[in-house]
From TrEMBL:
Keyword field: Isomerase, Metal-binding
Ranges where the Fumarylacetoacetase-like C-terminal domain occurs: 47-252
Protein species of origin: Psychrobacillus glaciei
Molecular function in Gene Ontology: 5-carboxymethyl-2-hydroxymuconate delta-isomerase activity; 5-oxopent-3-ene-1,2,5-tricarboxylate decarboxylase activity; metal ion binding
Classification via Pfam families: FAA_hydrolase
Name of the featured protein: 4-hydroxyphenylacetate isomerase
Amino acid sequence: MSNAKMKMLEKHELELVDVNTETNTAVIGGSVLSVNEIQIDTPITGTVFGTLLNYKGEIERLGDAINDKPYNSPPIAPILYIKPVNTFNRHGAAIPMPIGITKLKMGAALGLVIGKKAVAVDEATALTYIAGYTIVNDVSVPHDSVYRPAVQHVARDGFCPIGPWIIDRHEVDNPDDLTIRVFINDKLQQENSTSNLIRPVSRLLADVTEFMTLSEGDMLLVGVPEEAPLAEVGDRIRIEIEGIGSLENVIVDETATNRGRSL
């Protein structure tokens, strides 16, 4: 069992729980329950920052185009964007498919949950600023813009499922060597590892806090691997991150449901 924090629906505070990340179960009231049996809320209340082009395969996929306009050269600093609060979604809830869109990109990402104010963090001590880790589906409408992702592509309602819990950082031996898998309708569609990050976790945190402050409760996504799989209405998505657990959601037509509806 691993130490984690979980937020129940209609509760204001995170609760300490023992979880099994392999079976995706938690000990609640002395009983072992599947997360699908628990009404779980989004465990994040701060700002969520996404990171672009932080997987080696993403740069390789761009090839020579990264030296052309508008890029001109590979990035020399982290490229960030924000997933605003309207995008926040929870384990077991529906992801709305916008009207006029037929497919969405499923962006599997490791989330670094900040545990204390982080300013100009030293890479050697960066992990001490992390409270824990969670799973994020950084959903987006497929688009070509890399350096300047349009708000309408990444910031739609429900486009950031998070959870099901926050695993204490001490439970993860090496965040830079975690296998990430994406399943659509129980079929494996993507597999990658945080060992392929251009900026490993400590380096990313140090580079970001060199020019901006991260506060307790904020979350920094390490990035989304290249070739994020596409999903459509009716598809059931499961993102697994080694040692963290599984995050599950289903895509529905936005006209047929409200964000937050359970599976």
